[in-house]
């Protein structure tokens, strides 16, 4: 009784904060330390240009974050993103102090040292037990959690679990080097906080499935069995692609591949260091990603965050994707050609896709359809997005294929910054068609809605609404409530939005409601 009331008192007094421990693979950040609600949070030294920390908290009363720039005497400049919200930030010596009342993802730059990414998730619900009926703990299958030798134990536990539909493969905290993992119907993979699965990067440890023209051979690291149903991956552990090393070995991998599956769910596991498109639902139906964090490097190419490929009814909600290549995109491609060789089914359309509450940082596009439109792509909605920094904010790049991209919506997106250029394109919005000249066909873009946008910068080059010919146009583009720079009034002309190139386009309308 006494204990109960003591804890009840605590939980009303302060929002709970949970630190997710750093796996033994990872060093601590040299530049930053972090406390949240007075609790010390583990930091992780990661890429050349950013570090990160992962924790959870309740929504409710404000919680104080103190981010210390350890190598700095004082703070002379900072960026705290998302910029559209007020976190009451203050400088105290070499600490940035701010508060948040709900779990959020933050990207913070202090004195241009290097970015710090703070990943705050909701407190975990439905945490499974580590043993018991229907729980297949990988340690009971001799998985090596020291991270020293490649382990078969996780696949062995998954195979045993698959014989008893509804079972959970439980991976406790620890460091695991793992070969390919195949998940079968009605099996869940749970990664506990502090559990990290790492790709070795050595091709002999994997089953090569494809060759990417101009690049390397590759594999699908963790995949569902084709024609499976009800597979789930969840928890607060880490799936680590070891991408930079893998590329140095002239190899690559997609990390999480729900392929030819239905009713797939993914919640909360952090994905990092991809060596190719990191997360790729392929020919999948009824797929839900929540709390999806993808931290790829900016010095590894073609490492897209999540690419929804030939799939239907896919939702990505509450997410951050950092990559050199596109953060969030939808694609359809030619069958039986390099990376599509292992696809289980005939080519499929992309339809009914929602990206909601997604934050991006990329050298390429943040939110994109393309480049392949080899099958139709329709009803794709990007909403409540934040572009921390990108080559291109959002767009449709119809470069390959003779089919149609239609009914594409960009709604409530804050373009905070743009930099560089992605293949010569450097703008907040690019809708463009090209024929890449390899007899892959060319096709139209129809019915694009661009609304409730803040483009704080427009980009260093002209914006594009550019078709290919009289036959293949960009048609039916509606703008409403697009705010350029810090303007308080929505744009009423194409020129104001820097949409300079509009050849072979038609039906461009303004429908401002503000
Ligand atoms: C267009 O897509 C939206 C989702 O973004 C959907 O609600 C709507 O029904 C689609 N419109 C048509 C005509 O299919
Ligand atoms: C856009 O138009 C300008 C002016 O005509 C031209 O110089 C530029 O090449 C065009 N950009 C693209 C990507 O077509």
From TrEMBL:
It is found in: Secreted. The keyword Transit peptide does not apply. Transmembrane segments: none annotated. The keyword Nucleotidyltransferase does not apply. GO terms for molecular function: polygalacturonase activity. GO terms for cellular component: extracellular region. It comes from the Eukaryota. Keywords: Carbohydrate metabolism, Cell wall biogenesis/degradation, Glycoprotein, Glycosidase, Hydrolase, Polysaccharide degradation, Repeat, Secreted, Signal. InterPro entries: Glyco_hydro_28, Pectin_lyas_fold, Pectin_lyase_fold/virulence. GO terms for biological process: cell wall organization; polysaccharide catabolic process. Residues 1-15 form the signal peptide. Pectinolytic enzyme involved in the degradation of xylogalacturonan (xga), a galacturonan backbone heavily substituted with xylose, and which is one important component of the hairy regions of pectin. Activity requires a galacturonic acid backbone substituted with xylose. Belongs to the glycosyl hydrolase 28 family. This is Glycoside hydrolase family 28 protein.
């Amino acid at each position: 009784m006494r204990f109960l009331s003591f804890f009840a008192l605590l939980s009303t007094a302060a929002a709970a904060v949970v630190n997710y421990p750093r796996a033994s693979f990872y060093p601590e950040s040299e530049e930053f330390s972090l406390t949240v609600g007075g609790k010390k949070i583990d930091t992780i030294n990661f890429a050349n240009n950013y570090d990160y920390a992962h924790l959870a908290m309740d929504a409710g009363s404000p919680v104080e974050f103190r981010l210390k720039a350890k190598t700095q005497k004082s703070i002379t400049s900072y960026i705290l993103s998302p910029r559209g919200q007020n976190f009451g930030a203050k400088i105290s010596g070499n600490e940035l102090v701010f508060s948040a009342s709900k779990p959020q993802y933050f990207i913070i730059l202090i004195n241009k040292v290097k970015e710090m990414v703070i990943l705050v998730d909701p407190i975990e619900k439905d945490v499974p037990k580590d043993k018991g009926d229907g729980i297949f703990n990988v340690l009971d299958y001799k998985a090596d959690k020291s991270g020293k030798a490649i382990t078969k134990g996780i696949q062995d536990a998954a195979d045993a679990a698959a014989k008893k539909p509804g079972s959970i493969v439980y991976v406790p905290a620890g460091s695991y080097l793992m070969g390919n993992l195949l998940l079968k119907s009605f099996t869940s993979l749970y990664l506990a906080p502090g559990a990290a699965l790492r790709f070795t990067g050595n091709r002999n440890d994997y089953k090569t499935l494809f060759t990417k023209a101009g690049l390397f051979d590759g594999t699908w690291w963790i995949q569902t069995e084709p024609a499976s149903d009800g597979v789930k991956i969840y928890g607060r552990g880490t799936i680590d692609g070891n991408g930079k090393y893998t590329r140095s070995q002239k190899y690559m991998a997609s990390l999480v591949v729900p392929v030819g599956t239905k009713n797939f769910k993914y919640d909360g596991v952090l994905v990092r260091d991809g060596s190719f498109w990191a997360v790729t639902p392929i020919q999948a139906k009824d797929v839900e990603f929540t709390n999806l964090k993808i931290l790829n490097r900016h010095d590894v190419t073609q490492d897209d965050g999540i690419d929804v490929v030939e799939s239907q009814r896919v939702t990505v909600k509450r997410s951050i994707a950092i990559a050199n290549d596109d953060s969030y995109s939808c694609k359809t491609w030619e069958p039986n050609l390099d990376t599509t060789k292992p696809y289980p089914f005939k080519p499929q359309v992309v339809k009914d896709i929602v990206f909601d509450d997604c934050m991006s940082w990329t050298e390429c596009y943040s939110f994109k359809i393309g480049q392949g439109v080899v099958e139709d792509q329709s009803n794709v909605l990007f909403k409540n997005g934040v572009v921390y920094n990108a080559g291109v904010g959002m767009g449709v790049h119809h470069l390959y294929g003779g089919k149609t991209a239609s009914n594409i919506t960009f709604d409530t997106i804050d373009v905070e910054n743009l930099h560089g250029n992605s293949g010569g394109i450097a703008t907040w919005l690019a809708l463009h068609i090209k024929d890449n000249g390899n007899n892959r066909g060319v096709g139209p873009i129809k019915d694009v809605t661009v609304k409730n946008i803040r483009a704080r910068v427009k980009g260093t080059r002209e914006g594009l609404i550019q078709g290919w010919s009289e036959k293949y146009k960009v048609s039916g583009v509606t703008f409403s409530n697009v705010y350029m720079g810090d303007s308080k009034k929505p744009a009423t002309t194409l020129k104001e939005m820097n949409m300079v190139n509009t050849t072979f386009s038609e039906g461009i309308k303004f429908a401002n409601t503000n």
